[in-house]
Specification:
With about 270 residues, the chain is an alpha+beta fold. It has one domain: 4-Layer Sandwich (Deoxyribonuclease I, Chain A), CATH 3.60.10.10. It has five helices and twelve strands. Strands 3-4-2-1-12-11 form a six-stranded mixed beta sheet. A six-stranded mixed beta sheet has the order 5-6-7-8-10-9, covered by helices on one side. A hairpin with a 3-residue loop joins strand 3 and strand 4. Helix 2 packs across helix 3 and helix 4 packs across helix 5. The longest helix has 15 residues. The radius of gyration is 18 Å and the shape is globular. The N terminus and C terminus are likely disordered.
Length: about 270
Amino acid sequence: MRLCINNLEQNQRLKLLSYNLQVGIDSHSYGDYLTQSWRHLLPDSKRANNLRKAANWLSDFDIVALQEVDAGSLRSQFVNQIEFLAHQGGFPHYYQQQNRRVVGLAAHSNGLLSKYASCHAIHHRLPGKIPGRGALQVTFDTGEAQILVLSVHLSLSHKARCLQLKYIAELLKEESYFIIMGDMNCPAQQVSREFKKLGLKVQRDTHVTPTFPRWKPKHYFDQIWVSDSLNIIKTEVLNLGVSDHLPISMEIEIPNKLTEERAFPQKYLN
């Protein structure tokens, strides 16, 4: 039996964040992709401190979608970065989706941190010619309705992204309340165009600034989309981070209240 301490007479505001963490590599220029490339496969003494900084920022939010985090491999010194951020940031609930493993050197993953209990978690492998892209689905219960949250990381290929957006649209088309957060690797206009073509009713805040690259943002790759049944209060790109991306936040209003306790075990998705 799941314990529910909902206040069903009052809507709740949720603070959301989507963040491509680049496994804790602090990039400052395009040249760092060359000079710091070894950090994508080998241990780095600065990584733990970078993660602690990130956890401090993340702690202000209710639900955090993470991309480019490591589930525990040589480069992370076998630290599960999702679990580390959850504990450091004060999140009692966390989920991971490992999408690609490179012979023990790297464990590429999506993650989701939450201050609220979930009732369901599913790992979706997104279509594409090159495997390794995924969508982590976590569902939350308000007592009278469910809210489906996706942490996604789409492909660099335009053709693959179209297939992946179609997959997501099919997944969500019957859902009344949903949130999509992640690194879309393309402008919001393409995402909007594909979802509109597929009949998925979504919305975002159009008054946002670019998120990539962090040192001189030009591209709005990191995005948060919600169903048109949810109320957006505000959206903000945060000028902080230890990555090559800036995190994007959104505050929304949802019907009723999320469950704050649960009686089922932590879920790990591999």
